[in-house]
Amino acid sequence: MKKTIVSLAAVAALASSAFGHFQMLYTPESALEKGTTIPLKVVFNHPFADEHTMDMGLQANGKIKPIEEFYVVHKEQKTDLKNSLKEITFKGNSNSGKAYESEYKARKMGDHIFVAVPAPYYEKNEDTYIQQITKMIVNVAGAPTDWDAELGLKAEIVPLAKPYSIWTGSTFSGIVKGDGKPVPFAEIEVEYLNYDVDVKNNKMGEKAHYEAPQDSFVTLTIKADENGKFTFGIPKAGWWGFAALGVGKSNQYDGKELSQDAVIWVQAKEMK
């Protein structure tokens, strides 16, 4: 019986690592009619299946390293928000993980580009590290300013469509860049945020919106073209995450392999 339990645990761990890891940078609404104070959650999880929530910054020795950078860019001005972060425990439907939260006064018209640079995370099942440099854009009052700005990140997806004004049935396009250069034929994982997020209580909703007919539908995979450009059709309203894998130059950390990924989140709306 003991051997059976160990075997099942191992299978569960392998299944967890097979689904896409996504650094989530969440707020409920990306297109604001007017300025207001918005909540921000910084969580490392699997947004479609929600079968595991990771401890952000987990190292191979079991210690936790704090987030490296957290800031916002508005009209080419960068504001450091790292000191506004509070450590939280975020509860998924299978387990809880160490995460962060903040609030931001999105009062000025235009685009506010949020950037989270977490410490590399140790993935025990693969004996490697993952660092997902993540962008999410909030717009106030519909005035476009910075949405297509290239920030010069080590790993970055530069949007070619406004990430906050996407109708379902349309597309989202972007260019994958590593240290400022397009990455030809980059592999990009795509996942849908399949659960409501309880911002007040720092947890995922209990019921999934959709059920995947097979595991390959949980984490979708697309490729960029020879110029690093990709396009993806958006079938449903909600938040969609795009993760370009291993596009940053850094490929080693603490003596182990590092995947330095670029992540961007976009939000689609139903046309009513």
What can you see in these coordinates?
This protein has 272 residues and is mostly beta strands. Residues 1-17 have low confidence and may be disordered. The chain has one helix at residues 2-18; strands at 22-26, 31-32, 36-45, 53-54, 69-74, 77-80, 86-91, 96-106, 110-117, 121-123, 128-140, 155-159, 166-167, 171-178, 181-182, 187-192, 197-198, 203-204, 220-223, 229-233, 238-244, 252-253, 256-269. The protein has one helix and 23 strands. A hairpin with a 4-residue loop joins β10 (121-123) and β11. The chain is 6% helix and 47% strand. The chain is globular. It has one domain (2-269): Immunoglobulins (Immunoglobulin-like, Sandwich), CATH 2.60.40.
CATH class: Mainly Beta
Task: Quote the beta fraction.
Answer: over 45%
- Radius of gyration using CA atoms only: 18 Å
Largest sheet: 12 strands, mixed
CATH topology annotation? Immunoglobulin-like
Low-confidence stretches: 1-17
What count of structural domains?
1
Helix percentage range: under 10%
| Average predicted local confidence, pLDDT | 94
Number of helices: 1
Q: Number of DSSP strands?
A: 23
CATH architecture: Sandwich
Taken from the alpha-carbon principal axes, the silhouette is globular
What structural class results from the helix and strand content?
mainly beta
The H/E string reads HEEEEEEEEEEEEEEEEEEEEEEE
